[in-house]
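Risk register update: the risk of archive-format incompatibility is retired. Evidence:
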Amino acid sequence: MAYDSPEKKAAHSRAYYAANKEKLLAAKVGYHAERKARIPEWYMLAGAKTRTKEKSLPACNLTCQDIVIPEVCPVLGLTLVVSKGVLSDTSPSLDRIVPALGYVKGNVRVISYRANRLKCDATIAELELVLADMRKL
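Archived output:
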């Protein structure tokens, strides 16, 4: 379709998007979900690079080859399952062993999303207090 002005082309594009928004978004989500399930290491690396900037961590020097997803979470023993959509407790998650060092070679491992959430920003002392409290109950 030929347009006699950039404004008409832009107006047509906006109208097309408005009329087909749900279909276009569904296709985009489906594409990314399928790709995420096929190459989760790439998405984990992209997320690490984003968090590196957001948290002002040392530069991320990882590659996809540095991210190895085990079959079982080394912390909780859960079978890791790469999902196409929303994260679950058994989704693989990139863990910084020493958080302040950032996402650098030798300082990352893949554990379950649940284990990573439990570790989040708690200290060993805090986790021991929680454990002691759970044992009392």
